[in-house]
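Researcher: Structure prediction, please.
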Amino acid sequence: MSLGAAAGDGSAKVVSPPVPAGALVTFRIWIPAGSTLTAVQPYALQGAAGGWAWSGNWQSASSLQAGNWNTLTLQIPPTAAALAELGVVFTLSSASSAAAYVDSVKY
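Model: Predicted structure follows.
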C-alpha cells in the first residue's frame, strides 16, 4: 500500500473476514526505511451485532524494524461477534511516497 500523499491515517483492510472469536491473528508487515511512519495498528472491527467494537494493537514505529518484516499479533476477544473489518492502520507524521506491505495474515 502506498503510505499516502499527506499526514494522517491510511489503512489496508478486508471486509467481513471469517476470523473466529478468540483467534490470535498474526500479521507480517514490512516498514520502509526513511518513511514518515509514526505508528502501525493491526485492528479488528466487530459488526453491528458486536456494537461496532474495536480491538487494536497500536505499535510505535520506533519499536519496529524499518526496512524489514515485522510480526505483529492481535487477539480477537473471545466473545466477539462477526467481524466487519480486519486490517492495519498506518499513521504518518507527514506526506510520504514510500510503500508498506502487509503479508501472511494468519489466524
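Model: The chain has a mean pLDDT of 90.
Researcher: Thanks, that helps.
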